[in-house]
Every structure is written in C-alpha cells, then in structure tokens.
Amino acid sequence: MSEPRNIGFVGLGAMGLPMALNLVKKQFHVRGFDMKPEALAALNHAGGHVAANAAEAAHSADALVLMVVNIAQAESVLFDAGALAALPEAATVILMATCPPNSVAALAKRVEATGRHFIDAPVSGGVVGAQGGTLTIMAAASNEVIEASRSVLVAMGEKLFHVGLEAGQGAMVKTVNQLLCGVHIAAAAEGMALAEKAGIDGQVILDILGGSAASSWMLLNRGPRMVQDEPEVTSAVDIFVKDMSIVMDAGRASKAALPLAAAAHQMFLAASAQGHGLKDDSQVVLTYRDLAGLKKG
Amino acid sequence: MSEPRNIGFVGLGAMGLPMALNLVKKQFHVRGFDMKPEALAALNHAGGHVAANAAEAAHSADALVLMVVNIAQAESVLFDAGALAALPEAATVILMATCPPNSVAALAKRVEATGRHFIDAPVSGGVVGAQGGTLTIMAAASNEVIEASRSVLVAMGEKLFHVGLEAGQGAMVKTVNQLLCGVHIAAAAEGMALAEKAGIDGQVILDILGGSAASSWMLLNRGPRMVQDEPEVTSAVDIFVKDMSIVMDAGRASKAALPLAAAAHQMFLAASAQGHGLKDDSQVVLTYRDLAGLKKG
C-alpha cells in the first residue's frame, strides 16, 4: 500500500473538526463532510476541502475517517449515503467514534467483504486532546493495515496503541475505559453522599481522599464539581447513560458479568430520569443525595 | 490541658509498632502493651517501656493510643481489661484503628461519660506510612481536645486533618476511603476480565487506561498484580471483605444507599468463598474471570 495522501473525513463535530484540522496541518489533502454548514466553513477556512455529501468525501480517498455520533450513523454513511461504494478499492475505513465492540466487528466484516481495509480506532482524550493532536488511539487491525495508515493516525493522536488484530478490540478497550470512568464517577458520588449524611464537608473528603489510595482521575476531576451548586457542564449525565449502555451491551454480547458497571448505569439512568440528564455528569451526586434523604444545599 | 508526655499504647502490630516507635523517637515516654512478646521486645529495644497488661499501659498516661484490630478489641481493652479505669481523669483516649463510625460514636460517649476525652483518629497510608511517620490522620473531636493532643498525632502522621467535631466522623472519612478503594479494585478487575474475554492483553489495558481518565490509584497499584500469576500479598481479599462490611454497616446505620459498594462487597465475598481470601486483594480478578467463563493462565 502506498503512503496515504487523500483523506475523506465524515463527522466534523466537537471532536471531528479539530482532528480533521490536524490532518490538514500535517499536509494531508482532507475532503470533509458534515451536516452542519459552519463545520464545513471552518474546515474550508483552515485549508481543507468541502464535500457536498459523504460519498464525495470518500471519492478518491486513500482513507476515510469516520468521527460520527454512533454506529448507526457510521453504517448510514457507508451504505445508505454510498460512501463505501465511492471509496477506492484499496482504501481504508478508519472508524474513530465510540461504538459497541460487536457492532464494530460486524461492520468491519461488511467493509472487508468489498475488498477495502478497516481500522477500529476509537480515541480518548476529549476535545482538548482532539485540538492538541494528543489523543490516545486504541487501534485494532492487522499489522499491515495499521502500518499503512500510521501517518494518518499519528497526525491526530500522540499515543497510538495497537491493541489487537481483530476489529472490535479497539472498541472494547474504549468500552473498558468508559466502564472505569463511569464507575469511578458514581463511586465518588456514592462516597460523597455517605460523608455528607454524616455531616462531613465534601471539600474535606476531596482534600483527604484526593491524596490517598482512594483517589482516581475522576475523583480529582469531577469531585470539585460535586460540591459546587451549578457546575459547568463538561460532559453530560446522558453521555454516561449512553456509554454505560454500550458497556452493558458489550458485557452481554461477550458474556461477561459486570455488577459494578450495572449499578453505575442504573444511577446515571436514575439521574437522567430525575431531570439531570443535561447537567454535568458529576451531578449523579444529586441522585445519591436524594437516595440518602439529603436535600441539596 | 498540659502538653502530653506519657503515652500508653495498646496494639503493637504491623501498624501499631512503628507508630509507637515514632512516638519514642519524638521523645515521648511510651508504655506499650500487646499480646505478642516479640512486639514488646521490639518496643523495649527501641527505648520504649513494656507494660504487663493494658491497664498498666494506661496508668499515669496523658493519652492512651489504641491501634487494635477492631472495635471489639478496643472495648475489651478499655472496659474488660480495665485500661479506662486506670487512665487518669483528664487523659485522652485516641482510637486509631479502622472501626465502624456508629460504634466509635457510641464508644466515645462511654469514655466521655467518665470525664476522659476521646479522639476518633483512624489513619491511611499503610505500613509504609506508619514506619515513615507519614500517615494521613482523619481526626474528629472538639478543637480543644485535638489541639491538646496535636503533638502526639503529628508524631505519627504527616497530614493531620480535623474532619469534624463529633466522634465517628473520623471513622466515617476512613469508611468512605475504604469504599472508594474497594470499588476501585473491583472495577479494575471487572474491566480487566471484560477485556480478557475479548482477547485483549491485560498489560495493554494497564498501559492505556493507567494514563487515561479511567485511571485510579488502585488501577496503577493493583492492576499489575492482576496480570501476574502468583502475586505478592500486600493486603488480603479478606481485609476487604471486612472493610466493605464496615462500609455497608455504615450506610445502613446512617441510611445511605450504596449500590456500588454493595456490588463490590459481594465480589470480595465471593472471592473469599472461592478460596482466595488470603490472596492479594487484586485477586478478586480470579472471581471475575470465573464469572466470565475464563480460566486463569
């Protein structure tokens, strides 16, 4: 396979746009598509090229990057919108959205049946990582396929991990990442509410446990927003309702019991049911306080 | 209250002995008692004094430190063995063992009813912290009582937090600490087993998630032992069976629902039931692997 030069990019959202711009900066010829005109304008302004639809973005591309919302959108772009048919025979589909592992594996089979290559390559690091090109990429595909697209991947992410040979394994690592993130947020809220019930100040808990063996990245990051009244929304409760659903589906599909993830999922779901779905995910603590008979504030 | 000089110390185990030795180093007159002659010999060798029983250790002490195994031992030392009666009227009982918050509150009432003072002061930091005098101390009592014993406490711990005015609040902070530690170990094992079921190498999970938002102190510390065959035992599964029992009892006593802690507790209990109770607590992963239909190795 020759070095990729032409990149099709579908999904120019909060993550996708800065990722596409990093490809432009690294001298790739990027042709992007999104439903939002302002995203296309931003790509164009930065030196990228605008496609009229997903198929046009794929046309003559060496690699087609998908940074869409979910697996349904990825399938729709590839099959309904004709992007896969428009993509040259030897090209590679790089799916970077967070999707269920078994669905990714099934999608890869359909793509590979047409002769194209497929890389399952979800990311972590958020918008900050997308902007800085410092994302962690969890890639699964054969060595040959990964190596051929290495320059594309490292243009978007600082840490490229080759986690397995089978599509779905990248998605699974991302799934385990979300499992731990979701459980750690819920655990921090559970501990916080228990302490508050005993009349202990939440900030004292953060000061002590943030520096002990009880610490987690999420305790340090979300904990301070658990003791604020109307915290900034960095990621919503409903995102974890969705992500923990992917976690539970992955456990069911691969037959692995996930008792902590199941409990955390129920707490995010209850938080959403209580009207907190669009609040910062730290606000699952409101549901814990409610369960403990505490009123906030 | 005058500056404390004479310290009675009961419970010279893996934590208690080095804590007592740190008091000796700081020029306190320490009279210690333990059931094990070798612990008494070590105290004597380091310049401490040996008591024939708990009451003798308490006799003429300004403060009586209890670093016993559990609340039952603390009660036994104070009431059955006569240490409280032997302790001078104005002296202070400092309970540093990990005990249930409501039991600590009840014990404090009984001690204070005799005119003595009581500090609820559990620690975190383990044997390493005990040896180095770098423990974190979570102390609850009135300002006056804490200040009067400050020199005693800071001789054993680097970070002294005054977490509340009521006995039981120190124990509650320690309880929340254990809640998070236990949930984080179980969550790491849950994620590890899910990844392994998908054919992903455990070390890859640690390399990626240890540097992501999914990280926790426990993932970094216990994770590596989850991918070893016969890891060193730094703290046993059965310790978490006990500590998560304290967590669940605390939730019940204060009426706070703890769904994640409950799930984690069941996993440690199952691990113990399966014969892993004396293994390193990271080995709760064996139970997760078993639940996922994976055989180890």
Q: Outline the low-pLDDT stretches of chain A.
A: none
Level-1 CATH class name of the largest domain in chain A? Alpha Beta
Q: Measured on Cα atoms, how large is the radius of gyration of chain A?
A: 21 Å
Q: Can you tell me the CATH topology of the largest domain in chain A?
A: Rossmann fold
How many structural domains of chain A?
2
The total beta strand count of chain A reads 9
Order of helices and strands of chain A: EHEHEHEHHEHEEHEHHEHHHHHH
Read across the widest sheet of chain A, the strand sequence of neighbours is 3-2-1-4-5-6
N-C termini distance of chain A: 61 Å
Summarize the amount of helix of chain A as a percent range.
40-55%
SS class of chain A: alpha/beta
> CATH-wise, what's the superfamily of the largest domain in chain A?
NAD(P)-binding Rossmann-like Domain
Tell me which oligomeric state these chains represent: homodimer
Strand content of chain A: 5-15%
Task: Describe the structure in your own words.
Chain A is α/β, with parallel strands linked by helices and 297 residues long. Chain A has 2 domains: 6-166, 3-Layer(aba) Sandwich (Rossmann fold); 173-291, Orthogonal Bundle (N-(1-d-carboxylethyl)-l-norvaline Dehydrogenase, domain 2). In chain A, 54% of the residues lie in helices and 13% in strands. The first copy, chain A, contains 15 helices and 9 strands. The first copy, chain A, has helices at 16-25, 37-45, 54-58, 71-80, 83-86, 101-112, 126-132, 143-148, 150-156, 169-197, 202-209, 217-226, 237-254, 259-276, 284-291, and strands at 6-10, 29-33, 49-50, 63-66, 92-95, 117-120, 123-124, 135-140, 157-164. In chain A, the strands form 2 sheets. In chain A, strands 3-2-1-4-5-6 form a 6-stranded parallel beta sheet, sandwiched between helices. In chain A, α1 packs parallel to α7, α10 crosses α12 (217-226) and α10 packs across α15 (284-291). The termini of chain A are far apart. At the A-B interface, β9, α10, α11, α12 and α13 of A face β9, α10, α11, α12 and α13 of B.
